[in-house]
# Entry
Amino acid sequence: MEPSTPARILVVAHRTAATAGLGDAVRRRASEGPARFTLLVPLTAHGLHRLMDPEDTDESEARAILDRALPLLSDAAGSAVDGLIGDPTPLTAIEDALNREHFDEIILSTLPAHISRWLRLDLPSKVGGFGIPVTVVTAVEEHAAVVG
# Structure
């Protein structure tokens, strides 16, 4: 990659898409050199849809996440961040995005370890199997920052 060619960074998040930690990670990566960011939000199936037909999932929740997160991440990146909605299975959503276009790096944002389904599924190491550098950002719970 030429120095003038921006790196393509795939940012994968759901509930953590609009967190300060992810914004900081995007800001840090943007400060390292030219980069273009795309936020991928996998759909989330709820209730019986998780078992019966996770593909038949309403996109409204994912769209609301994009609407909330894209301005924050764009501010952190210093340029517009693109948004994608992906498959309900996070690994499939990432693979689909990688098949659609070239990405040089992935930033994977998860919930804290004790509640993260993505970490229980070992998503970071599975994503690492694509041969692209992966940075994992773990969100800090809001109440954990409050010291009484």
